[in-house]
Specification:
Layout (H helix, E strand, L loop, with lengths): L1 H20 L5 H24 L3 E10 L4 E10 L4 H11 L5 E6 L4 E7 L2 E2 L6 E7 L19 E8 L9
Parallel strand pairs: 1-7
Antiparallel strand pairs: 1-2, 3-4, 4-5, 6-7
Helix pairs in contact: 1-2
Length: 167
C-alpha cells in the first residue's frame, strides 16, 4: 500500500515539475533541485499517513496439532495493521504465503491459510490469532495495529478441543 501511494505521488509530482520547468533555462539543475524538494515532501506525507518510524514485529506461525513452527521478523511502518504486516511479510520472505477472505460486515480479513496449511470445517481447524502472551485477539487482522517489538502469533488449532492459553 505504501509503495503504491509513493509511486502515485512521485508520478504526480514529476508531471507537475515538468510542466513548471518547461521552457526555463538550467533545466537539469532545476529538475534535480525540485526532485530533492519533492522527495522531502513525500517523506513528510508518508510519515503523516503511515506513522513515523519503522517497526520490527515478530510474527510466529505455530501448529498446535503437529509440533511445527516458523518465525519471521517483519519490518513495517509503526502503526500498520496486522494484515498490512502479513502482506509485507510475503514481500520480505519467499517462504511466507497466506490466503484470506474479506468480510465487509466485519471490516476485516479472515485468514484462510498460512504457508499452504488451511483451516477446515470438516476437521474443525482454524488459524487462531494471538498476542505474544497467547491471548486471542477479539478483533480481526485489519483492526489491530503493530508497533516495534510486538509479537503476533498465528496458531493453527482445532475448536474440537478446548483452547488453552500458551506462554
Amino acid at each position: 500500500m505504501m509503495l503504491k501511494f509513493s509511486i502515485l505521488v512521485v508520478c504526480l509530482l514529476v508531471a507537475n515539475l515538468c510542466h513548471e520547468v518547461q521552457g526555463q533555462g538550467n533545466f537539469k539543475k532545476r529538475v534535480r533541485e525540485e526532485l530533492k524538494n519533492q522527495k522531502a515532501r513525500i517523506d513528510r506525507l508518508e510519515s503523516a499517513v503511515f506513522g513515523a518510524g519503522g517497526a520490527t514485529v515478530t510474527m510466529k506461525i505455530e501448529n498446535s496439532l503437529v509440533p511445527e513452527s516458523r518465525q519471521y521478523n517483519v519490518s513495517v511502518p509503526a502503526g500498520n495493521t496486522v494484515f498490512q504486516m502479513m502482506v509485507a511479510a510475503t514481500m520480505q520472505f519467499s517462504d511466507f504465503t497466506f490466503r484470506d477472505t474479506y468480510y465487509p460486515s466485519l471490516a476485516s480479513h479472515f485468514i484462510d491459510s498460512i504457508n499452504g496449511l488451511a483451516g477446515s470445517t470438516a476437521d474443525k481447524t482454524f488459524w487462531r490469532f494471538e498476542d505474544g502472551n497467547g491471548a486471542a485477539f477479539d478483533r480481526g487482522v485489519d483492526l489491530i495495529n503493530v508497533y516495534n517489538g510486538d509479537v503476533i502469533v498465528f496458531r493453527f488449532t482445532s475448536w474440537a478441543t478446548p483452547a488453552t492459553e500458551h506462554p
